[in-house]
Design a protein that fits this description.
Layout lengths: L2 H6 L18 H8 L4 E7 L2 E5 L5 E2 L4 H4 L9 E7 L2 E7 L13 E5 L11 H16 L11 E4 L4 E4 L7 E2 L4 E10 L2 E6 L11 E4 L6 H13 L3 E12 L4 E10 L13 E6 H10 L10 H11 L11
Parallel strand pairs: 1-5, 10-14
Antiparallel strand pairs: 1-2, 2-3, 2-6, 4-5, 7-8, 8-9, 10-11, 10-12, 11-15, 13-14
């Protein structure tokens, strides 16, 4: 299996950006790139992106002139990279002290709550931008000595301001496994408290220190549902910017045994047959996870491997 091709078909992946590592130490180059006609800015406010449209929303990318900024500062503006002769930046309005004038027919909206069209490479741009902004907000102090840190390398680092420490910090991604567990003709689906009514998804959890990815699959499934996994098979990965996670998708086969739900983690877990999913979708008692999530992709691939036809025919 070509894992590059497999992962590239997931939403929020494969931007094809040149992240321009060779210019990031040159602050003058940063300003000239940002103020050039080729620059495009993606504004983020809180955890919301600037979007436009009605049914199929898309991200708003502003020119330097449209932002109304008088000058660029890497304290609130970070270089993402270049693609097709344009240079992309993210603008963190929570750290910018001024105001920008928003174009008409635009509004700030949360990515997970919007009917956004993220099927092209701009979905990956949103994931990258959102994760980078949140990482900066969460690392304003040095994790080693507690001193203030300042953004550097056009947003790809934060430097400790304590001369005795002076450690550079670089963006980190938290790995998490997400797994479609199957037994015979059924798939193990679970829900957390607070999810939309009827929504069930697959088991997921963060990888611990000292674990392989496969160890994490086995542990997470058992801890949350009491089910023992006997085999695992890697599927693909997807960046998930909530806040800055890399989802690593797996299929797994379960041994015999009863579900024992960890009520601190889950509200419910149960085995779903394809007929259960069809019936739930038709009568409104079952909702799929987000259309751009790897969880939807794994559930769909499992469903489509059966004899009920493609899942899209029931949505």
């Amino acid at each position: 299996m070509d894992h590059l091709l497999q992962s590239s078909s997931n939403f929020l992946t494969s931007s094809g950006l040149d992240r321009m590592p060779g210019v990031r130490q040159d602050i003058n180059r940063f300003r000239s790139l940002a103020e050039s006609p080729e620059a495009r800015f993606l504004p983020i406010k809180g955890d919301e992106y600037l979007l436009k449209g009605n049914d199929a929303l898309s991200p708003v990318l502003l020119t330097f002139a449209e932002t109304g900024l008088q000058a660029i500062d890497q304290a609130f503006c970070y270089l993402l990279g270049s693609k097709d002769k344009l240079v992309y930046f993210v603008l963190d309005l929570d750290l910018y002290c001024g105001e920008i004038e928003l174009p008409g027919d635009t509004a700030f909206s949360h990515l997970r709550k919007s009917r956004i069209d993220v099927k092209d490479w701009t979905g990956a741009l949103l994931a990258y931008a959102g994760a980078l902004v949140l990482w900066h907000r969460n690392h304003v102090f040095c994790g080693k000595c507690g001193s203030e840190t300042l953004a550097a390398e056009m947003g790809q680092a934060r430097y400790c301001t304590n001369g005795q420490c002076a450690i550079p910090h670089y963006p980190r991604t938290d790995p998490a496994v997400i797994v479609a567990v199957t037994r015979e003709d059924k798939c193990l689906l679970a829900r957390k408290e607070g999810w939309p009514e009827g929504m069930y998804s697959i088991v997921a959890g963060y990888v611990d220190h000292g674990e392989s990815l496969e160890d994490a699959v086995v542990r997470e499934v058992f801890e949350e549902t009491g089910i023992h996994v006997r085999t695992t098979r890697y599927h693909s990965s997807q960046p998930w910017p909530f806040p800055y996670t890399l989802m690593l998708g797996y299929f797994a086969e379960a041994e015999e045994g009863d579900i024992v739900v960890d009520k601190q983690e889950l509200e419910d877990a149960r085995w779903f047959s394809r007929d259960d999913i069809i019936e739930g979708l038709q009568n409104g008692t079952y909702k799929m996870p987000s259309s751009f999530s790897i969880s939807r992709k794994l559930i769909t691939e499992w469903f489509d491997s059966g004899d009920k036809g493609p899942l899209t025919g029931y949505l």
